[in-house]
């Protein structure tokens, strides 16, 4: 995680407030727990993105996204990456997953999401599976991911 990245207030707002369903044009990623685990990271208090996405997250890739990660970060249409976010509970010198806080999704479709580098962005409420982002918020997700243009707009990397 890049510490120089500045958090966008809209991300915190999108994750905190249950707003009515807007553009559910990025579908809920059914079955993602059976996909390939890419990596795990814990963001602790003090990290610039803590307010928005603090806690433990696991990233998952579907088969198309896995090909993209392993093939020089060239992601084909149909690639989906999930950012599964949990509270972090510290006890007894161990950190465990707490409640699931949100399910963030990126889905590649070069034509459909042409305005945001070919990626559609959405955040789902884990309890209701309701979509939380409108088009403006989706654009703000991409504004930060734009920094990774040379890596297909994806921050994380694969390792065997
Ligand atoms: C301020 C910068 C920033 C914003 C805004 C942001 N992200 Fe990210 N995102 C990151 C970083 C950094 C990572 C890498 C996390 C890691 O390596 O574990 C990431 C990772 C991801 C991933 C996994 C794929 C990847 O790029 O590694 C998804 C999915 C994702 N973000 C979705 C979203 C969604 C949806 C939004 C809007 C609600 C959003 N992001 C807004 C910085 C941002």
Please list the strands of the largest sheet in the order they lie side by side.
1-2-3-4-5
CATH topology: Chalcone isomerase
- The average pLDDT score comes to 90
Portion of residues in beta strands equals 25-35%
Count, helices:
4
The end-to-end span amounts to 19 Å
How many domains? The number is 1
How many strand segments?
Answer: 5
Small molecules held by this entry: heme C
Return residue spans where pLDDT drops below 50 for at least 5 consecutive residues: 17-24
The coarse overall form would be globular
Under the CATH scheme, which class?
Alpha Beta
Could you tell me the radius of gyration in angstroms? 15 Å
Helical residue percent?
Answer: 10-25%
Kindly list the characteristics that best describe this protein.
160 residues; alpha+beta; 5 strands; 30% strand; binds heme C
What does this structure look like?
By secondary structure, the protein is an alpha+beta fold. The chain has one domain (9-151): Chalcone isomerase. It is built from 4 helices and 5 strands, in the order H-E-H-E-H-E-E-E-H. The chain has helices at 9-16, 50-53, 63-70, 135-145; strands at residues 36-43, 55-61, 80-91, 94-108, 119-124. It has a 5-stranded antiparallel sheet with strand order 1-2-3-4-5. The structure holds heme C. Heme C binds next to helix 1, strand 1, strand 3, strand 4 and strand 5.
């Amino acid at each position: 995680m890049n510490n120089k990245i500045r958090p966008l207030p809209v991300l915190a707002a999108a994750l905190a407030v249950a707003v009515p369903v807007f553009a559910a044009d990025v579908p809920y990623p059914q079955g993602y727990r059976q996909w390939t685990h890419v990596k795990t990271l814990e963001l602790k208090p003090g990290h610039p993105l803590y307010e928005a996405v603090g806690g433990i997250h696991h990233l998952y890739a579907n088969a198309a996204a896995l090909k993209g990660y392993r093939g020089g970060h060239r992601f084909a249409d149909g690639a989906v990456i999930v950012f599964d976010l949990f509270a972090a509970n510290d006890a007894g010198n161990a950190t465990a997953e707490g409640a699931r806080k949100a399910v963030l999704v990126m889905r590649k479709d070069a034509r459909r999401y042409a305005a945001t580098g070919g990626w559609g962005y959405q955040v789902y409420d884990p309890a209701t599976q309701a979509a939380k982002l409108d088009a403006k918020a989706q654009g703000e997700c991409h504004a930060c991911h734009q920094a990774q243009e040379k890596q297909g707009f994806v921050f994380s990397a694969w390792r065997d």
